[in-house]
Amino acid sequence: MITKLLIANRGEIACRIIRTARAMGIATVAVYSDADARALHVRQADEAVHIGPSPAAESYLVGEKIITAAQQTGAEAIHPGYGFLSENADFAQAVIDAGLIWVGPKPQSIRAMGLKDAAKKLMRAAGVPVTPGYEGEDQSAERLKAEADAIGYPVLIKAVAGGGGKGMRKVDAAGDFEAALESCRREAKASFGNDEVLLEKWITSPRHIEVQVFGDSHGNVVHLFERDCSLQRRHQKVIEEAPAPGMDEATRAEICAAAVRAAQAVDYEGAGTIEFIADASEGLRATHIFFMEMNTRLQVEHPVTEEITGVDLVEWQLRVASGEPVPLKQEELSINGHAIEARLYAEDPAKGFLPSPGLINDLELEHRIRIETGVEEGDIVSSHYDPMIAKMVVHAADRDSAIEAILDALNNSYVSPLKTNQGFLFECLDLEEFRAAELDTGLIERKGTTLLPAERSSQSANNAAARRFRRDHLDWSGSYTPEGQLRAGLFGFRLNRPRQEDVTLFEGGHAVTGDSSKHEAAFGICASMTPDETIFVTERGQTYSFSVRGPDGSGHHSAHDGDIVAPMPGKVIAVDVAEGDVVIAGQRLMVLEAMKMEHALTAPFDGTVTELAASAGAQVQVEAVLAVVEPAEG
């Protein structure tokens, strides 16, 4: 058995691996960049090694530094987590060549599944159903356009080396193909260093179903059933659950058997996931489920599989990497109950879900459920990496109970002052379609802004804040009965006194009045007060912050309505207008690349571009004014 393990990752997954390693008596070594010098995974590990500057390209993605750190600390094995170098076959081989144990599949297995086009050909040969499309070597724009025309629109362009929703574009009509191809290739090149693409027929009612597989060096391969990851935004998973709702036993048996064949075809060892796209227009049927890709690593959503099967997949990884067989046989695995995972991110739904990095002053996460996190109160969500705060995971006897549990957990949590997607998650989980398991990957897009929480607090939230203030404030002469009813003190007492007990507080710099006598019993409101007299009220997952004191008068300068400002630091990769151009509302003005994603900046209204302060290739800082649009007269 491994006795000392280096974890070549950061954040919640590093903390997750440390927890299991410690339970197994394995010492851990963390690696960290400048930005992560005081990160939680560094504090939790037995040892930590600095590996470079904050950008991942200069630290977490430099395999030589990680291998050197393992050798210097005497670590026998390297666990890559997910992301970064986890699916890099060259790094896996370098680890093995250095005489270390690679906690993952063999490099040749990674290579076989690393390129989506080659993987599809391999899967066809193994008898695994594959989506109709084009994976040819001819990558000319003309050939790709001709193949797309032949497949029929809509089609999906996908980077062959892609993942995480990057390098993907849906094309609805022939006239949109060339622009989509150019954008897809540019993003793929920036994210993966490879701009080759493949084409797939777009499935009209797609559900994302994936099967957890596990192999060992003794020739055994088992599956741990399926997960449903259909609730997505821009191809990024938002909510995951296991098992997939609506999956009958016959269909489950066929899709899981196909997943095992896929793993066997590449002589797979360790944890892996076979991802399928299902045409759910007539329910889940084995004849309408197609292979998409294989993720040759542990998945972000692995906790829901652990919850329904009762296994520890990280422990399995470490045992198999040490030469042991898979701990359980297929017939010993079964499904118990239902699990749901929600990914809580520091991002602003009101601003297109742009990352909201910064210092976490206040953090309260529901403690009665499983929380996977890499931060604590007082930590920083860095702009250099994925802005995940936590994975919130519930397990219950059935799906309905699991939904109620995750909604309750969201309502009993808050993060401040960072913007988060917490309210958005609540709205997604509370959708009638989600509750009824009427799922497909386009559901969130169709619902659009209806899933965005209210920006200002409701009267019910104001009342809850007032009630909490009255209960906790030291100067309040009243009290509450054990039943929670307001018992007025004698201060200011008079006959025929009205029941209303108004309290003025400040939310978002605005004075609001709440009635502290109102007992808000409605589902979806939770209030708490910090020692500095900040009151947090969570309503339908959205947290509002109330202050006892008003603004200090310093104010905050906001951009003119026509100022086009950079929503985050990044690089301008395209400018579509010039000074003096007349534009219409919604017209693209320029494209900003940030965190390997492209963000289009558009005109807020009809008008004229009167100033242009950015050019293609320029690096810009957050809130920098890049252009000014003057509104059209009338």
Poorly predicted residue ranges: 474-499, 552-559
- Radius of gyration, whole Å: 26 Å
The major β-sheet equals: 8 strands, antiparallel
Number of strands: 38
Shape designation: globular
Q: Which second-level CATH architecture of the largest domain applies?
A: 2-Layer Sandwich
Helix content: 25-40%
Cα-to-Cα separation, first versus last residue: 76 Å
| The CATH homology group name of the largest domain | ATP-grasp fold, B domain
Q: Classify the secondary structure makeup into a structural class.
A: alpha+beta
CATH class of the largest domain: Alpha Beta
Trace the largest sheet across and list its strands.
14-13-10-11-12-15-22-20
Count of separate structural domains: 6
Number of helices: 16
Approximately what portion of the residues adopt beta-strand conformation? Answer: 25-35%
- CATH fold-type name of the largest domain: D-amino Acid Aminotransferase, Chain A, domain 1
Q: What is the arithmetic mean of pLDDT? A: 89
Key terms:
single chain; 634 residues; alpha+beta; Rossmann fold; D-amino Acid Aminotransferase, Chain A, domain 1; Dna Ligase, domain 1; 6 domains; 8-stranded antiparallel beta sheet; 5-stranded parallel beta sheet; 25% helix; globular
